[in-house]
Design a protein that fits this description.
The chain is α/β, with parallel strands linked by helices. Helices cover about 30% and strands about 15% of the residues. A hairpin with a 2-residue loop joins strand 2 and strand 3. It is globular and about 65 Å long.
Length: about 575
């Protein structure tokens, strides 16, 4: 969730911040800079894309026709549910209408209606953001596979953006072709309901048919996972080896799914990246928002039809305004560090679909046998629009943690990273309650311990510290930076990676670990041994130009915040 502005809209920059986001300073040979760009389709050789009859797969609703590119069968915008517009708003996802002809699945589907991101400049450049297009007919998924036969592990990626915005293709790093091409997996990504469309409780307004309305944004994901379980074999995937993973808000969706009874058995591995363990509100808190919304709109308390016909922008603005009125002034947003919980656009405990604050109050017993990856990046608090001096950084920390802790934090981080600029160090610990590198490290340690305490399947921790050469290296390892690597997309994401040889090598290592984890439940590869984490040592894999295991990286600094 994000800051609600005076006109009732949510700033995308602050949603990224609080969710679960002339000189390039680049030195490399010209051959690397001029290498083939998948992103811009600047190919110097013969093309590899075709639409053969072999690129047709069966689903339970009808056949879909995709395309073949570089040996990868690609299907985009495959429906797993019907439109959620009109009378379907806030109802559980309905099955799409079956079709008899082949459905062309060549392009991405629409994204859930959302406010476009407001931040520009360097931040947008390094992430290469794409807002895409919006539609309430957004229950679509995308599939990349090297073959339509076989039984490969399935990697089911859930996008970030808190629970308010984002999409399966918002970043070029989400492109799944290289995972299928080089790592022999079936890659899947998904869109689902967000913000007021995914998390408004209208049960009191519309009656028992809307009992699940408060969490349809999450039950959509369960429906998508059921689709995978029932159909992925036709795309060369193994329904018994499904890994769910997500970054930022996607990590929070992963940890929520791990505690949802109706998701039990639909996945066998999980990864929460730079997010997870949200302090979600109660259902009664969410109902206060609904009551306030109806009052503000001047609608009869049972006029569900008016809400279903209302244009999304007006509905969303009114909903955001109601959220502001219901929550106490200064109450923290829902998130890993939020306390007490705040009402708004996030999952909530409804006693049926969601019964606990998974990985906030504890690890869910129903997922105790699911091995887990959990980790973060060093510069989570990256804000390329902010260029603090050391004095300004210190003042920011003092406001958040007090003068004594601020002095200790500045001293500890400067000593640990003498070559990093103050601007980059400020991204490691910005004082913000959400995207803060050290605070996120504390959340990772907490979640790993909770998983360990179940005494069942282990948690494997990581810390991504690779520093980009782009923009003089100032962005560091920003929030979302690791996605370029665990998807093996260093080339496609060259605005962030520079597509250097070092970036290419790291991408191969990380993607291999993620694919191996999907296949076996263990992330170790032939060249990189990765041991589970325990609360005593906090064993953590460092992903950098040199990858290695470390006990409790940045432990001294992160403990200052906890003291």
């Amino acid at each position: 969730m994000g800051r609600i502005t005076g006109n009732g809209t949510i700033s995308r920059r602050d949603a990224l911040k609080l969710s679960a986001t002339a000189g390039l300073g680049l030195s490399m040979p010209l051959a690397v800079v001029a290498s083939d760009s998948v992103k811009t389709a600047a190919h110097s050789g013969p093309g590899t894309l075709s639409t053969p009859r072999s690129a047709i797969a069966k689903t339970q609703y009808g056949k879909v026709r995709g395309f073949l590119d570089g040996g990868v069968f690609t299907f985009k915008g495959v429906p797993y549910g019907a439109t959620t517009a009109g009378e379907n708003r806030w109802l559980p996802a309905k099955a799409p209408a079956a079709w008899t002809d082949e459905m062309l699945t060549l392009t991405y589907g629409g994204n859930c209606p959302q406010n476009l991101h407001s931040w520009t400049g360097a931040q947008t450049f390094i992430q290469d953001w794409d807002d895409g297009w919006i539609s309430e007919d957004m229950l679509k998924l995308n599939i990349w596979t090297p073959s339509l036969t076989g039984k490969r592990p399935v990697m089911f990626y859930i996008h970030g953006g808190g629970f308010s915005f984002g999409s399966s293709y918002e970043l070029p790093s989400h492109e799944g072709a290289n995972m299928a091409r080089f790592h022999d997996v079936v890659q899947v990504s998904v869109n689902h309901r967000l913000n007021i469309l995914g998390f408004l409780d209208v049960a009191e307004i519309g009656g028992s048919a809307y009992e699940d309305s408060v969490n349809v944004g999450m039950t959509d994901l369960v429906v998508a996972l059921k689709w995978v379980h029932e159909n992925i074999a036709n795309f060369g995937g193994d329904p018994d080896r499904v890994m769910i993973y997500g970054q930022s808000g996607g990590g929070s969706k992963v940890t929520t799914l791990m505690g949802m009874p109706n998701a039990n058995g639909l996945f066998s591995r999980a990864a929460a990246q730079s997010g997870g363990g949200g302090n979600i509100p109660t259902r009664e808190q969410q109902r206060e928002v609904s009551r306030q919304l109806m009052k503000d709109l001047g609608l009869h308390k049972n006029d569900i039809g008016a809400l279903q016909k209302m244009e999304w922008a007006r509905l969303n603005a009114a909903g955001n305004a109601a959220v502001m009125k219901v929550n106490p002034a200064g109450a923290p947003m829902s998130g890993p560090m939020g306390s007490p919980p705040r009402a708004g656009w996030s999952p909530s405990i409804d006693g049926k679909n969601i019964t606990m604050r998974s990985f906030y109050d504890g690890a869910p017993d129903i997922s105790k046998n699911v091995p887990m990856l959990v980790g973060s990046v060093s510069e989570e608090g990256n804000r390329m629009s902010q260029h603090p001096t050391e004095e300004q950084w210190h003042a920011n920390l003092a406001k958040a943690y007090g003068e004594e802790k601020a002095t200790a934090l500045v001293s500890t981080l400067k000593q640990a990273y003498p070559h990093k600029a103050i601007q980059t160090l400020s991204y490691m610990c910005s004082g913000a309650p959400g995207l803060n590198g050290l605070a996120m490290r504390n959340n990772v340690v907490k979640m790993a311990k909770q998983k360990h305490d179940l005494n069942a399947a282990p948690a494997y921790a990581y810390y991504f510290t690779w520093q980009t050469p782009i923009l003089d290296g100032l962005p560091g390892a920003w929030h979302t930076a690791e996605l370029q690597f665990c998807f093996d997309n260093a080339k496609r994401c060259e605005q962030g990676t520079g597509n250097t040889p070092e970036a290419q090598a790291l991408a191969k290592k990380m993607a291999s670990c993620w694919a191996t984890f999907a296949a076996t439940g263990k992330p170790s590869t032939a060249t990189l041994k990765w041991s589970p984490s325990d609360p005593t040592n906090n064993q953590t894999m460092i992903f950098d130009n040199q990858c290695h295991m470390v006990n409790d990286p940045d432990g001294a600094a992160r403990k200052i915040i906890l003291a």
